[in-house]
Amino acid sequence: MRVPVHRLFAAALALVAVFAAPPGAMAAGSFPNPLFTWGGTADPGTIYTDGRYYVAATSGVDSTGGVMPVRVSVDRHSWSNSGHVFESGKLPGWSDSSYGYWAPEIYFFHSIGQYVAYFAAINTATGKRCIGRATSSTPYNFTDLGRPLLCHPTAAYSIIDPSIFFDSVTGRHYLLYKDDPNPSEGTKQIVIRPINDDGLSGIGTPYHIVAPARSWEGVSVEAPTMVYQGGFYWIFYSGATYNRDTYALGVARSTSPTGTFTKDPSGGPILSGNNDPRYCGVGHQDIEHTAADGWLVFYHAYLSQSGESCTGGRYLMMDVLYWDRSGGWPRIHDGTPSE
């Protein structure tokens, strides 16, 4: 398995001339990708809290009996295990653990003074994936609330990839996720719905805001992440099939979180491993913004492939997110992962 060569820190800084990093942010190339050598970090969900970065990942039940490992770092260089979203004996009773738990995301809700973890799991009552939620006083070791937060109303298909957006303009929270029917059953697309400020109740009207329409997206868009920047609501998403070389990261924007979104005018993804021999299946991003580190995008990638199919595990990656393109559109490195 190939691991990219670490660029020297001083050399990386010297090469950054045209596009400077945001104040406090690390320049692209100053972190060796992948961030660590554990290949079990699919669908990373990140949170920055108490001066630390935590990342949770998709998993089945591991040797400890826990699911969705959580790792922690102060500097994004050195990482350690801090536990799981669910420890042994605490898996949700409504779920079928043999199919694994997907795409965990962790948020802190001030109205209840707790962390809430979202994830997708098979509902034993329907055989389809639903969105679950659980609470904790820490960003690990959660307690499930005993039933799914949201399922497809008729159990016609699964819904996956939950995330939360807090609109600082209106003070409202929103739940985003992916409708995941088979292609013959409907369109795989991204949905946004209002949710109460406890993150646990009061899910409102669904708005379908992003669907696959460009050739690189294939028949699927997924893994939504929404941020507000420069007067626009930006939705970052991944398109195509997750374990193929064409899987990549796209972006669209709107003046409303539930409004009509316009995709990147370049026509292509803003981050891809396609035609890059180092990486395969680049995507399923999460975004953090801090005063100290600026805008960072975390995502996963395979490090090997066979033809167009990705092989091996998925590794945690990171790059700086810049807002310096014409019209304020974002970019990531040179459109491929940095080393």
Please give a structural write-up:
It is a single chain. The protein has one domain: Tachylectin-2, Chain A. The longest helix is centred in the first third of the chain and has 7 residues. The strands form 5 sheets. Strands 13, 14, 15, 16 and 17 form a 5-stranded antiparallel sheet that branches. Strands 1-2-3-4 form a 4-stranded antiparallel sheet, with no helix packed on it. A 4-stranded antiparallel sheet has the order 5-6-7-8, with no helix packed on it. The radius of gyration is 19 Å and the shape is globular. Helix content is 2%, strand content 44%. With 339 residues, the chain is mostly beta strands. It is built from 1 helix and 21 strands. Keywords: Glycosidase, Hydrolase, Signal. This is Family 43 glycosylhydrolase.
Topology:
Blueprint: H1 9-15, E1 45-49, E2 52-56, E3 67-73, E4 80-86, E5 102-109, E6 114-122, E7 129-136, E8 143-144, E9 158-167, E10 172-180, E11 189-195, E12 207-210, E13 221-229, E14 232-239, E15 248-254, E16 262-263, E17 271-272, E18 280-290, E19 294-306, E20 309-322, E21 331-332
Antiparallel strand pairs: 1-2, 2-3, 3-4, 5-6, 6-7, 7-8, 9-10, 10-11, 11-12, 13-14, 14-15, 15-16, 15-17, 18-19, 19-20, 20-21
